[in-house]
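Here is the promised in-class demo. Please do not try to memorize the tokens; focus on the logic of going from shape to residues.
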């Protein structure tokens, strides 16, 4: 689901940030997406890492931050996705989420201090993590 212009453009002077939300469970993904939209973020929803990579690498849409469930199904799982994004596009922060503390902790270690979040999501904590990730992105190259 795309909330931003298909060409990835933004209106001059606007600060709309685009979040890519990767979660196979629509009952989890949709309410969080709605919350983030209500907070002024544009949200693109996908169900797996293959779709996420297509959005980032092929769609032309500018993605500012990614939230990915570490247990996302598809051709590629969340840990590998985060590592690939970190090496290919370090300017796009990837936040990992997991329903088990152990999984989130392993992702955190595996991905060299990538921020991790617990599921079920606490929307205000997700928003705060995204704000921190976006603030840290200042000055870093994007997918360009």
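The designed amino acids, position by position:
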């Amino acid at each position: 689901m795309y909330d931003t212009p298909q060409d990835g453009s933004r209106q001059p002077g606007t600060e709309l940030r685009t979040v890519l939300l990767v979660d196979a469970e629509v009952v989890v993904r949709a309410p969080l997406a709605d919350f983030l939209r209500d907070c002024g973020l544009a949200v693109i929803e996908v169900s797996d890492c293959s779709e996420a990579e297509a959005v980032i690498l092929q769609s032309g849409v500018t993605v500012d931050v990614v939230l990915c469930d570490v247990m996302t199904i598809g051709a590629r799982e969340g840990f590998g996705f985060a590592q690939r994004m970190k090496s290919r596009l370090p300017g796009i922060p990837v936040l990992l989420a997991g329903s088990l503390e152990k999984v989130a902790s392993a992702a955190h270690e595996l991905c060299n201090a990538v921020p991790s979040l617990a599921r079920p999501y606490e929307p205000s904590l997700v928003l705060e993590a995204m704000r921190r990730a976006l603030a840290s992105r200042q000055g870093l190259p994007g997918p360009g």
